[in-house]
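Lecture 7 notes: from sequence to structure.
We start with the chain below.
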Amino acid sequence: MTPRRSLRPVSVLLLLVTGGSALAQEPPTYASIAPILQERCILCHSGSSAPLGLRLDSYQGLMAGSSNGAVVVPGNPEASELVARLEGRSLPRMPLTGPPFLDEAQIASIKDWVLGGALPGDAPGAPGDAGAGGDDPGAEEPPPADGTFASVEGIFLNRCAVCHTEAGAMGAPPEGLRLDSYDRILRGGDRVVVVPGDPLASEVYRRIVGRSRPGMPFGGPPLTEAEVERIAVWIRAGAPSPDGTAAPVPAGGEVRLGGTLTALWELDGLPLLVTAETRFDEDPGVGDYVEVRGVVTEDGGIRAERIRVR
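Predicted structure tokens for the same chain:
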């Protein structure tokens, strides 16, 4: 009978040839995913107004989770809400600026990091990094109200796109209105919501200041005075695109504005063009809260087609 040979020497030889890479490979650290979060996530998830308090601008913020609990379960990607949102298993899918969403390689990197124990590392926001632990007062400063889209983009994504996106918190975007990109904001939904040059003619502004009902964001705390001012300045400047080009007047676009008649015919100070074809319901008068359905004129004014007491 031939003696049975041991395979141990062969195994040892393989380890020597490969340099023991199977044993020496270390799990990824936060440094491996920080660039992905910086590029795709922190536009919304940073600073004191981060949705549900979830800050993704530092390791500490990520591991602290949101007001709903942890979003990372070290060692278990399938149980981690962060991964579920990125894959679309939980809605709304993240990031809200998608599509495009993260690609397969980026999601795989994050899953590998979680699977490896969600280890910290030498990256901004990692423990021991004095420069990005989230306590720098300058990190909380909002962009200036300079009329650029950059100064308001984070507000729309942070406070509005939670619902007004392809698959938001309420499912389909209410009234077809998506507020998750510049083009979609200007396009509106069932009607125009931004009239460049005039905040009072813009439903999106009237909603956030409570002139049109219901006020927005729906079910959430109101925007701060600074955030409201930034949106007003942007609209007043012509609602310029990211490259600074003023938006065209949406002549012929339909609007629906709620507010108080402060004069005949003014809606909270906004002049209304009333014609012989304007329809009046329930005899609206000064002081009444009304709904105005109208059309944007070529010069950016509002021609009222119907005014009714609400």
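Points to note: The first strand starts at residue 254 and ends at 263. Residues 1-23, 124-140 have pLDDT under 50 and may be disordered.
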